[in-house]
């Protein structure tokens, strides 16, 4: 079983802390090991790397060490030299462990799926788990671990079979989402991210904010200041884009244009100076695919064509 990146980082942290002679958190450490078999597996791998690194640097001690005590007057400087060497050995050990951890993190057998604007694709993973990918979406999956994915950009609806022993983990930029028996929709455009849940629950960044997102809730992270908000959403709106519908609530024209472009494959842009104007409404995509000017009547906007793009703005 592949070791989750978050567990691996926790194991490295425990390994470094437990190596401190002043370490006293043995009860917490034991509880962490017993919480999940994967914890022990990860700790064993990291501990082995630490031991190998320490052996390597110990075998490369200071040159001419047998002659260090030959001259009485140089003992003080030699002690200082040894302290510097020990510090270098520790630094080298940590560097080797860091390299080991980086190698492990990058050892996933990943493959990428890209979906063109206007298209939809469904990917089946393990039994009971599938991902519906919206237009202009890119996702990375692991050939060896169907319980891991990284959403590079776009929008995807996840229907996940929950497994307490191996929960599904989704990386979205620097954020981590962990399922709790879940149907949830994730949108990732630029620096913005949102996750909406219709069934089960999702834990957002369990090792940081550890925010639970329950059915009928949507969590948004602002890309500019990192602010996180949790709001209500009708469960039947989660993943509605699969059925050819989009709903906007105080959405900027910039977001409306981006979502329409991704969903229809037709190029939309917000008019200059109007990207922050907000609109609300629900619309079917089929009429817009036939005639983009239909958007004007549906959302009360000005829609005009400029070359190969459609410009939307206030009336």
UniProtKB/TrEMBL annotation:
Q: What keywords appear on the UniProt entry?
A: Membrane, Transmembrane, Transmembrane helix
Q: Where is the signal peptide?
A: none
Annotated membrane-spanning segments are 85-103
Q: Does the keyword section mention Membrane?
A: yes
UniProt xrefs under Gene3D superfamilies = 2.60.120.1440
**InterPro entries (UniProt xref):** FecR, FecR_N, Ferrdict_sens_TM
GO MF annotation terms: sigma factor antagonist activity
What Pfam families does its record include?
Answer: DUF4880 (PF16220), FecR (PF04773)
Query: Which superkingdom heads the taxonomic lineage of this protein's source?
Result: Bacteria
FecR N-terminal domain span: 9-48
- Which positions fall inside the FecR protein domain? 112-203
- Name the UniProt record assigns to this protein: Anti-FecI sigma factor, FecR
Organism source for this protein?
A: Novosphingobium pentaromativorans US6-1
């Amino acid at each position: 079983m592949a070791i989750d990146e978050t567990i691996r980082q926790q194991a490295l942290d425990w390994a470094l802390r437990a190596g401190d002679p002043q370490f006293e958190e043995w009860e917490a450490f034991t509880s962490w090991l017993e919480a999940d078999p994967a914890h022990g597996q990860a700790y064993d791998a990291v501990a082995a790397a630490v031991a190998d690194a320490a052996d390597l640097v110990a075998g490369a001690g200071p040159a001419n060490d047998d002659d260090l005590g030959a001259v009485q007057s140089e003992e003080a400087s030699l002690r200082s030299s040894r302290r510097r060497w020990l510090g270098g050995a520790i630094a080298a050990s940590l560097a080797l462990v860091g390299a080991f951890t980086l190698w492990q993190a990058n050892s996933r057998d990943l493959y990428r799926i890209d979906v063109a604007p206007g298209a939809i694709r469904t990917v089946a993973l393990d039994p009971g788990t599938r991902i519906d990918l919206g237009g202009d979406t890119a996702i990375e999956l692991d050939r060896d671990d169907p319980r891991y994915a990284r959403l590079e950009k776009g929008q995807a609806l996840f229907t996940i079979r929950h497994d307490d022993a191996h929960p599904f983990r989704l990386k979205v930029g620097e954020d981590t989402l962990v399922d709790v028996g879940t149907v949830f929709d994730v949108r990732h455009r630029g620096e913005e991210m949102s996750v909406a849940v219709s069934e089960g629950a999702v834990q957002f960044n369990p090792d940081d904010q550890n925010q639970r997102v329950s059915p009928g809730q949507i969590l948004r992270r602002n890309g500019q200041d990192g602010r996180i908000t949790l709001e209500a959403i009708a469960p039947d709106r989660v993943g509605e884009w699969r059925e050819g519908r989009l709903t906007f609530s105080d959405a900027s024209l910039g977001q409306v244009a981006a979502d329409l472009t991704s969903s229809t494959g037709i190029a939309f842009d917000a008019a200059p100076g109007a990207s922050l104007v907000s609109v609300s409404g629900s619309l079917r995509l089929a009429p817009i695919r036939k005639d983009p000017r239909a958007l004007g009547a549906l959302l009360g906007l000005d829609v005009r064509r400029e070359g190969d793009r459609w410009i939307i703005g206030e009336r």
